[in-house]
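Working notes for the structural subgroup meeting. M.R. asked for a predicted model of this chain before we commit to crystallization trials. I am recording the input and output together here so anyone reviewing the notebook later can reproduce the run.

Input as submitted:
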Amino acid sequence: MSIDWFRDLAISISGLVLIGVLIFVAVLSFSLYRRAKAILDSMKLTAKTIQGVSSYVGDEVAKPVMQVAAFVQGIRQGVDAISKLFKRKGERDG
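Returned structure, recorded in token form:
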């Protein structure tokens, strides 16, 4: 056996090991991709749920509160307008 034979053997073994490593990395990458895709899909679903909840809260809570605030403000302005009518003439100028 000459040195050429050992060199060829080392190159062949290195090639087989490299192929094995590449296959392992490809399988690992595909597995991580599938898991990450599942997590991303779950996050999208969670985001849609949160969007629905916030929309519901906006419709069912915020709008009635704004309506009550507008009603109170209207009453206050009405009371202010009526009180201006009944003030004495001297108090109006000041």
